[in-house]
Structures are given as structure tokens and as C-alpha cells.
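Can you give me the bound-state structure? Components:
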Amino acid sequence: MTVTFTLNGKQVTIDTIPGKRLADVLKEDFALPATRPGCYAGVCGTCAVIVNGELAHSCLIPAFAIQDAEVLTGEGLEGTREFDEILSGFEHAGYRPCANCRQSKLLTAYVLLTLNPNPERANIDEWFADQKCSCSSLTDIYKAIDYIVLHRRSASRGRK
Amino acid sequence: MAANSETLKVFRPRTLAELLSLKKRRPDVVPFAGGTYILYGDTKKYPDIAAAVASMRHLEELKRIHRTERYIELGAGVTLSEIMRIGGRIVPPALAQAIRTIATKPVRSLASIGGNICVRPQRLTLFPVLSALEARLELREHGGSRWIPIARFIDQTGDLDISETEIVTRLRIPLSEWNYQCYRRLTDGPVSDRHSLSFCGLANADRGVLTDFRFVFGSMDKTILRNREIEAGLVGRKVPLLSRDINAICASFEELMQQFQSGFVSPFQASMAQKMLRWFLSSIDN
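Here's the bound-state model for the whole set.
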């Protein structure tokens, strides 16, 4: 079946199997390596993408359901100021998630900070606690988010 | 490849009227909202979906939220994330607590409230809390509609009481004030399984007297357990409840549970249900 949707800001049309998972569409039809389907069951979170502004597991979305949707992956956000701030925040805080969960951690931080520029510990827990990767702890994530928040605050004072 | 991944027939109704007309012609078509129940936990590369589905993601009529002083009305396609965004001040806290226990945020951004209550093989997380809140459902089909209390959405065998041509379109949740409300779920993971147990308790007390009380258990099987006689027996008692009142209620409840022990609840679940009820009764003070 033919499915048309917006991928990283560009409208794309594919001829695909209706039940194919979005995670596989991104990997196989568009060769986007940042999305890494892991469990195929909606549990591990490594295939996270942003669909219509919401963080979602791409393994839980069949191709037919992305008709007219706006899909953003890590590749699509690269180069934007917000995303670069998160990247550099991770670096400066010494937080280096493994290649497997890197995109999901970055996208989660992006969505969290978009919705809530000053998240408290409980907010961070709510967003990150379910991400099951042993490469990093919540303490690492707190440090990284705190760094980004402080950096953004001082940058915005500088702009004023 | 799963047999139906390639041959899956997908309909994309643009309006509710189109969907209802489709269901009249093709009752076998499965409405597909978030699809999380179907895909969650299915680890195959190509998941088994259904022979024919109607994608409901474009039906704005099912995504509306309407609030009055007395109730909040949610379209069946409203996602669990959207409900949480409305916020705890409007959404009854017990409902918000229940939603928070469902899977993870990225899953809740896909899962819809209608999907949560329309799963046929089992009653999922929101059923007990919506039952306690006495939500009402609008069921529509081509040329007609009806509103029913959620308690009447399941028949005596525990199956959903909905015809093949009907779909749930709206849920109306009363915004009554409750001094005490809680939702607890006993489970060993983010997804309900046959060992799960959930409990919703609501209570009002005024000048030291219990004026209203509801409790509902769900075992994640097909049955929802609520007993209005036991509830009514508590109304009018002084709070905090005396130990002997609590013991009497728990004993009545134990009898009730025994009727369901053949398959509905395990002895462990029955014991935990007793503890949850006792804890809730004890937490009601003045």
C-alpha cells in the first residue's frame, strides 16, 4: 500500500507492506541508522521517535498508521539549536549513552525540555525511568538535564 | 512474514459517519486506534494484526474533549497522554493514577482510552476505575446511538456487550468530589497479565460520617468485581471506621471473592485484594 507522511520535515511516499513496523520502515526504506529496533515489543524504548510531537515507540506503529503523520528522528533534529544544546549538555555532563539507546535518550530529553524547560527530578524520573538500558543511570541523566537547563538559562540571560 | 501483514486490508474513514457506514457493511473490520494492545509484546518482525482494520487516527470527532461542571466527556480516540495533559485538577485523581501505571509515556502517547476499554479478551487497567467513577459510554452504529453505564458494557459472562456494527465513541465521566480516592495496581511489570490485580476506592466523609463509598476490583481477566450491598452497608458509619466494621466488611468481601475463585482470582490475588480493601478502609479518617 502507498503511505505518505512527513519524515524529518520532508514529505515522503512509500509503497510498503501495511503491517510493517515504522521502526523497520525507517531502517530499511530510509536507511536511518539512529532508530534501533530492539525488542519489537514496545518495551526497551531504543526505537523511540517523535510522531506528531509526541515521543512514541516506532515498533508499535504499523506503516498504515503513519499516513499523514509527522515523524521526527534523531537525524532530523540534528543541526537544530535545541538539539545541539542537548548534545553538548550530554557531553559536558560526561553523559555518554551507548549507541543503542542514544537516540531515545536524546529524543526523550528533547521532548521533556520542550514541554517543561525546568523539569524537577520527578519529571525526569517519569520520562526516563522506564528506559531499560544499563549503560547509564538516572543520576547521569539528572546531571545532563541540569547542565542543559542551566546552560539555556544563562544563554537566555545573555541574549536579553 | 505474518500471514496478514501483506494482505491486511486497511480502510481510512475520514469521518465518523464513514466509519459507521463501513462497520455496517463490513462488521469484521477491526477499529484500530493506538493499536498498542495488538502490538505491545508481539515480538515478531511482522505483527499479527487483523484481516481488515479501520484506521481511526484521522477521526477528529473521536478526539474531542468537552467539559461541563458535572462531567468530562472524552472522545474514544483521545490518547492517555492527552488525558494526563488535561491535568489532575480536572481529571479525577484516581483516573490519573491509573493512567500513570499503564506501560510507559511513549506507549501512552499512542494508546487511546476507547482502546483500553474495548479490548475483548480481558478488562484492562482503566475498567475498574471507570466503573467506580460510574462513567457512561456512547455506543454508535449507522443510524443510531445509545448511552450506557460502563457496568452494562460487560455481560454476565464478562464479555463486552457491544454489537459488531457498533463502536464506542465517547465516555462521560462524572466530576463528583471525592474526599478519598485511590487506585492501586498489583503487577510485576508495566503490562497487566493474568496475575495482575487492580483496585479503585472512592469515599466521601462529612462531619465524621461516611456519606458515600465505592470500591471496585479488576483481576485483568474478564470480570469486574463491585458489590453495591457492601458499599451501601458502610454508608452512615462513623469515621475513622472501627476495627469491627472493617473486619465485617472484609469478611463480606471474602465471601464475595470465594464466588469468583474458580479462575477469576488466585488465592494470592484474593489475599492481596483483602489487604488493599482493608488499607483503604483504614485510611478513611475524618
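A couple of observations. The beta strands of chain A are 2-7, 10-15, 48-51, 54-57, 70-72. Chain A touches chain B through 31 residues (CB under 8 Å).
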